Amino acid sequence: MGRRPSELGNISLETKFNGKQENKLFVADRNYYICTLKISMKTSLYLICFLFISTLGFSQTYEIGGFLGGSNFIGDVGSTKFVNPNKLAFGGLFKWNRSPRHAFRASLTYSTLSANDALSSDPRRKLRAYSFKMDVLEASIGMEFNFLDFDLHAATPMSTPYIFTGISMVNHPNFYFTSLDLVSEKTRSYAYGIPITLGFKTTLTRFIILALEVGARYTFSDEMDGSEPDAEELKKIVRFGNFNNNDWYVFSGFTLTYTFGRKPCYCNF
Question: Is the pTM of this model over 0.85?
Fold first, then answer.
């Protein structure tokens, strides 16, 4: 049996009405999904910012400044005094304070290392009369430990002794001695070492820190003073000194640094 026109019209209207209703529901679902996604992304962004700023704010202050002092060498040539600065040393350093008790530290230092047997207390060295002078550039990186809390955000002046250690690398020229003179090998090498620095620092103002320090470098090389040539074919001919003792050098002086960074805060967006 066929449907009456009125019934066909009702079905057509109902179909159109259901289609529009489904479209409205689809649009509503899509808008709800987009809105939920935006809220989720916004919440995630706030959370990331919160964690990032909280990490930066947790006693995390930076320092940048300079070093000025003197240097001396300890090896098979010259004086064996441990702290005996005789040449100018200067450089720059950067610190990342991770807590009131420790900081990461990196530095570059330039100096002239020299040694003279005439200034030694050993009569055999005085009779030998060797001497040298060389320009060096050292890079070091490591960790600085404070013996007392050193909170740079405190309202009161702060002071503490500290120790620094890590790894150092110094670039130096290669040379050796003959019975008559010093001979350059016309090459340069890197001597790696372990810095051992003791110091005392204090805040002059809220942003300025003054420190006095003495830093010895034990190197894994015996070539810096010319007692061991870099060329293998020369080592058995002109090598001298204590073969079981590597070279040392010392930087003594003061540092002046400027502090900057965010004060600790867990809710500052």
Answer: no
Taking CA atoms, 266 is separated from 42, 52, 255, in Å, by: 18, 10, 32
The span from the CA of 206 to the CA of 105, in Å, is: 20
Q: What Rg value do the Cα atoms of the chain yield, rounded?
A: 35
Q: Say how far apart CA 60 and CA 264 lie, in whole Å.
A: 8
- Please tell me what DSSP assigns to residue 22: H
Tokens of 17: 């009405």
Write out the E strands in 33-181.
61-74, 87-99, 102-116, 131-146, 159-177
Q: How far is it, in rounded angstroms, from Cα 105 to Cα 14?
A: 77
Question: How far is it, in rounded angstroms, from Cα 51 to Cα 183?
Answer: 59
Tens digit of pLDDT at every position of the chain (269 positions): 555 554 545 544 444 445 555 454 444 554 544 454 445 445 545 544 444 444 444 445 899 999 999 999 999 999 989 999 999 999 999 999 988 999 999 999 999 999 999 999 899 999 998 999 999 999 999 999 999 999 888 889 999 999 999 999 999 999 999 887 898 889 999 999 999 999 999 999 989 999 999 999 999 999 898 888 888 788 888 888 888 889 999 999 999 999 998 764 434 43
DSSP annotation of 79: -
The structure tokens 């709800």 sit at 32
- What one-letter code names the amino acid at 207? F
Helix (H, G, I), strand (E, B) or coil at 189: strand
- Cα–Cα distance between 269 and 260 in angstroms, integer? 19
DSSP 207-248: SEEEEEEEEEEEES-S-TTSSS-SSHHHHHHH--S-TT---E
Kindly tell me the burial class for residue 79, based on how many C-beta atoms sit within 10 Å of its own C-beta (0-12, 13-18, 19 or more).
buried
